[in-house]
Every structure is written in C-alpha cells, then in structure tokens.
Design goal:
Length: 227
C-alpha cells in the first residue's frame, strides 16, 4: 500500500501468518490421501462393513473442498492486474463475478452429488445418483450432471429432469431455491452496473452537453456564439 519494499524476514513472516497462512495450510493438507489411501482410511472401510462408516467417509471427503479456499487469493491478483495493466474496472469486476459464479455453482453441485451418494442405492427411492444410474458413470458425466442441476436451480429455471426425491435432497433443493432467488437478483444487478460503467464517460459528456444546451436556451445566445 505504501510502495515500500520490506526485506526483513521476520516482518514478512508475521504478515504472511496474519494473512493467507491459515488458508494455505488448510489447502495443502492431503485430505484425498488421508481419507482414501492412508492406513486409517483403509481400516475404517473394513470396519464400516459392521456399521455406517462408509457414509461417514463420503461426508469426510467433502473436506477436500477446503482446497478451494485458495481462490480467496484471486481477488488480490485481479486487483494487481487492474492496477499494473490499467484494466477497466468493469472488466475486472466482470471477471470476478464470472469466477464467483463458477465457484458457487461448483460447490452447490459437489454437495448435491454428495447427498445423492449418501441417500441410498435404490433405483426408486435411493439417491439421485443411483436413480439415474450415474453411480458407475465416468467422473466427467457425474460432474456435468451435478453442475447442470446446480445451474438450473440457482438460476431459478429448474427443468425437473433431475429432481429431488429423498428427504435430504428435498431439504437441500429448497434451501438452494431460496438462495437462487437472491443469487439471481445479485448477478443481474451486478451485470447491469458493470454494463452501465462501460458507458460512464459518454454519459458524463452527454450530461454536460445537455447542461450547455440548456444554458444556451436560457441565455438566448446567438446561433454563431452557441456553435
């Protein structure tokens, strides 16, 4: 902020600890290995045959989503680009909104898929992943289906081809519908503001010209002078 180059290692370390240290620390923990390949995970899966540990493991794997905390640092990166390369504020803000849309939709889709996995494996009353026979599909197909549901729900479209049937899915869908109404309004208002900012300079010139023309009419200036 002060354009002062700091070379003191202690000051740099303290600033980092107060800033992104916790985010980086959580994001670098190998949750994928701990929850799937480690001896603790393998023994838990064996013991889970006697109880409900497999479902708990599926929920625990959601902790890997904490890696997305690194996206928080993207805001400062975009701000630096805006300053260094003189990028229009409207363009940088639009990029941030698009990235935010993709991040939120990704999270909503991931939790929707997780609920579908833990809702049972019945073809009629099980989770949506099993009802639509996606449990054995490639990861890409599962991800696209989850993102499709998230987009259609958050944008208040809701085609209904992938629907909620279990109580968990219905509760989650209702919450996302409520969130989607506010989310859609926020996106529309933000994009409208951004679009108007692109024409801000021309708008200011037009307003000044209107003031000048109004003065000319009020003062009844000669045509030669008004030109």
């Amino acid at each position: 902020k002060t354009d002062l180059l700091v070379t003191n290692h202690k000051m740099i370390a303290m600033r980092y600890i107060k800033g992104f240290f916790l985010i980086d620390l959580i994001a670098t923990i190998p949750f994928g290995y701990i929850l799937t390949q480690s001896p603790i995970a393998l023994s838990s899966v064996k013991l889970g045959k006697l109880g409900r540990l497999p479902k708990m493991m599926k929920f625990a794997r959601a902790a890997r989503l904490l890696k997305l905390l690194r996206v928080y640092k993207l805001h400062d990166f975009i701000m630096r680009l805006e300053i260094e390369y003189n990028v229009h504020h409207g363009i940088s803000r639009m990029v941030k909104i698009v990235l935010l849309i993709m991040l939120v939709t990704h999270l909503v889709g991931c939790f929707w898929f997780l609920i579908g996995l833990t809702g049972g494996d019945g073809d009629l009353n099980g989770g949506w992943v099993y009802r639509y026979y996606l449990d054995m599909s490639p990861k890409t197909t599962q991800y696209v289906a989850s993102m499709y549901w998230a987009f259609s729900t958050l944008t208040t479209v809701g085609y209904g081809d992938i629907s909620a049937r279990t109580p968990q899915e219905q509760v989650y869908a209702m919450v996302m519908m409520l969130v989607g109404v506010s989310w859609y309004a926020y996106i529309v208002s933000s994009m409208s503001t951004i679009m108007s900012s692109f024409d801000a300079q021309n708008k200011a010139v037009r307003e000044k010209m209107m003031c000048v023309n109004e003065f000319i009419r009020t003062a009844k200036l000669p045509k030669d002078l008004s030109k």
